[in-house]
Amino acid sequence: MTLSQGGACRGNQRKSPSANSNSSAQANKSMDNQAANKNSLSSNAPTDSNVSEKWGGDHVSLVTKPGGADLEFDCAHGEIKVEVKTDSEGNFDLAGTLSREGGPSRLEEDSGQPVRYVGRITQDTMTFRIHSRGNDQPSEVFTLKRGSEGRIRKCK
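The structure assignment produced for this chain is given below.
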């Protein structure tokens, strides 16, 4: 079926059905890419791990890096050791480490305790909890905003 606009309007040219379907496919692809960018940690390209991006909130700061991310907390620091990616709905479950700061620590804790950073990105907001092995209770919920430095009060 071909639709055209007649009368005194400009552009009284007919488009072929294949031209219309190509335009629709390109529009759908563009919308898919925009949705992926909103749920990715990198606003420039969801698969570009060379892009560094800051996220921050109360008691937390996250900076992406090639192959992962660095995190700072009030009395700890962490590292995500895998490429930061979300699923199609913005969810993530990423392996990393968490090292507590201040006070005595065990030698094996110097390299960080293995943890999983589990959460979700919705547009410019990220929420996550930290899940550690041997602890049934995940951490409090951390909420971060894209582009924010975060507010951290380091332990002394």
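Interim note for the steering committee: The radius of gyration is 23 Å. The chain has a mean pLDDT of 76.
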